[in-house]
Design a protein that fits this description.
The chain is of the alpha/beta class and about 450 residues long. It has two domains: about 5-125, no CATH class; about 245-430, Rossmann fold, CATH 3.40.50. The protein contains twelve helices and 14 strands. The strands form three sheets. A six-stranded mixed beta sheet has the order 11-10-9-12-13-14, with helices on both faces. It has a four-stranded mixed beta sheet with strand order 1-2-3-4, with helices on both faces. The longest helix has 21 residues, at about 110-130. The radius of gyration is 27 Å and the shape is elongated.
Amino acid sequence: MTSSDLTYQIVDYLRKNLDREYGIKIFKLSTSIFAARVPRQQIREFGDIDSDRIAEYMRAHIPGSRLNRATHAYIIADTDYVEVDPANLFDCVYDAEIDIDTIGSDTDYVFNSIESRIILEEQKEAEKLREKSIVEAIEEPEESEEITPDQNVPVEDAEATIHRILDHFAHGKQKKIAVGRQTSGRRAEVLTQTKRGRYVRYRMPVDKPGDIAIAPTIRAAAMHADPDKEFTIRGSDIREKVRRRRVATLICVVFDASGSMDDLKKTSVTKSVVLALLRDAYQRRDRVSLVTYAGRGAEVILPFTSSVELARRYIEHIPFGSTTPLAAGLKRGMEVLRSENRKEPSAIPILVLVTDGTANMPLQIGGNINREIANVCRLLKQDINVLVIDISEEGADLAEDIAHACGGGYYHPSRISQQVLYHAIKCEQESVSDVKSEGV
């Protein structure tokens, strides 16, 4: 008996001992086997509803610790099945820290791992069907979006460095699929459900398909086609296009306007850095907001704008003085970004904190300053990219701690100098590889 025959017998035994309506169980045979039954004739009909039901049941009834010894995992339909990697399946279901947002089903990632196996099997079968007229000459050219090359060349090497920093943050943590209002930008790309953008791949539709991928749909239908009968396309054969398009970045610059910054060198470097950020944002079609903190709280001195001149006028007339409510500044910056991000869900949010690492005023009278800052950092880490620029003379532990707690970047020059600051940022940026989190 071959191994494939043995596997088929095992799967047949599992099928008979599971309820067709999402029966899920761990079987102890020669090894521990996880099996889930779906009410589908064929496994290629597996969809988002199925992945949701399986994941919900597992989270509610099967502790993750019980699955540690499972060596095989099968998703079983009426006539066939698919074997998936147990570790990948269980990690997807039980992992509580997902860095990407999803559209439709919150268990798309489970379905995708299963669909990739199905697609692989379909591709193998498609090779055998090439001689059939129904699949001959079906080639759909990839649609492309004309993107104008960037013509804006920074006038200073320092601004080019700032540009690369923000590009890294924009690409480092992106949303999985963009919906809602989408404003074009140049810095980052995300996947989108709209009909605009480059066609990069296909998927089974979450809801009613609006942008059908013709070639993949026909290939899926060809898998069950009878050469002697009329060619038909089932609902389960439909594939929709997934496109990628460029989106804008929202940058909230939060900087210290307290008495600790009332020093000519500090204020000069701070204004230079902020203006460089603003110029880069203008070139990249990003929008920038300015938040200052001093005294008892923080203030939005400039709502989101793409006007560099308007921002410049605000910066040049900022008064420095009073106490340093750093937690209030972080909290206000987070609120501003989240509020704007709700209006423009596809945009990439970035908070840039310019600080000397001083904090001497709590959010509430008698509050614990360090605890308040830690709590705000924990919230920022969930969905906002953070860049901390430390302009203190010797480097501040608090500024570095904030960057670490937010999962962001930290930059500090060895002395208060605009040139050294840019050089430090450039060296740090070149040591980091861009990470794409896109994909469906």
